[in-house]
């Protein structure tokens, strides 16, 4: 059974590598710097849009971040419609509401302002509102046949990298599963990495989203689909995160560390959208959906355990990641340096106040969680992981997170 899983996953990974050679992934236009959201808004005006749908959440409206970000649009006489019904891990009902809102107000572009939840929802709202494909029609990989409305992104967290990816994650509340829509047509047209929108992000969310970005970077660097370009982006992201995440959690008002995290998250997103992710995500998606834990926290819980699991198979790659993180010495063996990386990840997690156990996880959930995680990780579009996992190994890892 295990041999079959390995062969099947390797075959799927090979097919995916071949497919990616024929896919041209567009890169968004990127504005960087405190205040770059105004530059993005001016660009939106220049592109000739008349009425823009802002997709966001209520918290960001209350904090004044939406008004701050859209001021430049309104000053230029562009109509702004705000749809602020997005909640963490958006579901189909929230997305459908946004599509109706967009059509009702004849919006000709979508501007996402928020974390990955608002960005993911906005990408699908723009796609469906501007075409006749419903979100459920395009679930899965490369099923989008028409372009939707242009999407612009102002990320207010530094973690998901959704502003760079061809991915949207929508939760099916009926089955407590996260559904994926993956297509190059989902890549936003332009984004602004504006640290001034992130200074009020609370420490716990800064920590969780930062660990999400670190997980993207590490899983991308370890992917069997990595190439020179994705590796460079992923390792640069690792370096920037190790140098800035702790400081960003301790002092969220420092624009330099916030900006470094925003760029790192973008690099990690641009890398993993090509290389895909790995077991950390395969497990975290299920834990997040079943126990309602934030995505970044779920990733952070699994990351050191999965790295432990890879140690005997991926030490050279892990040593390269350690080097990027500034961990260990050039005189260390790959094994030694790889082990130091895992320790450094654990220390970083602890220093930014992240737990080691998953609140809400119960023994009776383990079997279902493992089945779903292995299904996602070894399934049709399986993850190109450096080492394959058996069910028993997966169960052992999940049990390490059970609250004592
Ligand atoms: P989020 O968007 O769910 O936001 C978390 C909370 O932070 C919200 O309550 C929000 O109001 C608050 N918040 C956001 N910015 C703030 C700010 N500047 N100041 C104060 N509060 C702020 O969190 P997230 O981790 O960014 O996104 C998670 C979602 O992204 C998940 O659904 C996950 O599945 C998805 N995701 C998508 C991709 C992709 O490539 N598309 C990749 C990874 C994760």
Question: How would you describe this protein?
Answer:
The protein has helices spanning 2-22, 36-46, 58-62, 65-75, 92-104, 116-129, 203-222, 228-250, 255-275, 279-291, 295-310, 315-325, 334-351, 363-378, 391-399; strands spanning 29-32, 51-55, 79-83, 109-114, 140-141, 151-155, 167-172, 177-182, 190-193. It is α/β, with parallel strands linked by helices and 404 residues long. A six-stranded parallel sheet has the order 1-9-6-4-2-3, with helices on both faces. β7 (167-172) and β8 (177-182) form a beta hairpin. It is globular. Bound molecules: nicotinamide-adenine-dinucleotide. Residues 57, 59-60, 63, 65, 88-89, 114-118, 120, 156-157, 159-162, 165, 167-169, 178, 197-198, 200-201, 205, 209, 212, 294-296 line the site of nicotinamide-adenine-dinucleotide.
Keywords:
Dehydroquinate synthase-like, alpha domain, globular, 15 helices, Rossmann fold, alpha/beta, three-stranded mixed beta sheet, binds nicotinamide-adenine-dinucleotide, 404 residues, six-stranded parallel beta sheet
